[in-house]
Amino acid sequence: MSPAGGAGTRGRTLPSTAPRPAPGTTPAGPVPLAERAGGPDLARGLALLGIALANLVGWLHGHPWTVLAKQADAAPWDRAADVVIALLADNRGFPLFALLFGYGIGVMHRRSREAGETPGHFRIRMLRRMTVLGAIGVLHGILLFDGDILVGYAVIGTLCAVLATRGRIALPLAAMVTVPMLAVWGWADGVAGLGGGTGHEAAAAATYGESLLIRLDATGRGLALVNDLGLLAPMALGALAAGVRLLEAVEVHRDLLTPLARWGLGIGLVGALPLTAVMVLDPFHEAIGSVVLLGSLGVLHQLSGLIGALGLAAAAALLAERARTAAPGGLRRAASALEALGMVSLSAYLAQSVLALALLPPYTLDLGASLGTAGAAALVTAGWLLMLPPAAALRSRGRRGPAEWALRRLSGPVPRAAREGAPA
Fold this sequence. Notes:
Elements: H1 38-54, H2 76-88, H3 93-114, H4 119-143, H5 150-164, H6 170-190, H7 208-222, H8 232-243, H9 254-281, H10 291-325, H11 330-343, H12 345-359, H13 372-396, H14 402-411, H15 416-421
Helix pairs in contact: 1-3, 1-10, 1-11, 1-12, 1-13, 2-9, 2-13, 3-5, 3-8, 3-10, 4-5, 4-7, 4-14, 5-8, 6-8, 6-10, 9-10, 10-11, 11-13, 12-13
């Protein structure tokens, strides 16, 4: 999911058999906080760290690039950090978020059908929601970070919501058709070091005003969103998974989730090794200079990341279920904190950009030119850790994050049934 996706109800049962209202009379509201499934939120909490680490390439500047837009002349400790990020975060965090975003759409569609809402009403509600999310993304891209993904989530999420109402074949077909478009991003990562780049233009701007103009131009060009169609592959898979409560009814699906976690994580790791090896062994491509070879390794890195995202989502669902039934202790506390952060993932995503803007560009502390990957990764990891206590406090009080609150408020009135079912 994107930072703004919803979560389903926790439990082991199949769809409710409770009486339903007349079609079109009671739109389904958001899932009350107390009833959200732990697995998707736990995965979002973990994915936030992956997104922050992967986005460092948009802030570090002043050094020539190698594959995955990493610094070719990195110090040993920075290269070690690059390896960890390339194996575990690059091309893994954003497919996971897109998968969970699609899962949230699937949950909302499922609740819509259970409430008797017409497909047309559901599409209108989703259009309102995605329009607001897209507006937040535009502001984020202009004011904070030129690597914004929220606009792409909003546009492709609208398409995913429409397809969810078009029968059983629409989403699987969309996933198959758009996988090659996702591979295009991997190709770009493989050949990133051949273009002579030294960092994002906005990251090296001397003043905030100059960076603002650069981001404004980049956001305007990015609204074409042709490449973002690749996001539909993980989103569609997530929506399909929500249809069978894959990440919610853990005991029902344990025989599928366990091998999916094991094989998905394994394939995701193995698929990242070749391009990571190029970064370590030949960062300036003195021996490996073939565009076709590097691009192909980038495609492998990207597509294996999608499989790895499926594995991580499955593993998170299993871990959340285990923590729920475990005795009070470290596992339960850690899982609860990650779930709480996942509940406010949109707010946390925006806060990570605020933190990076305050520390890394030349017009603030300019740490992006001096720290390297290891130092910058330590900073964003510390920021991620510091978000856990406030997120847990919000959860304990039954409150949503500020960005989540704004998204709901601006998307339209909350249905009466949802208000009555939510915690005080």
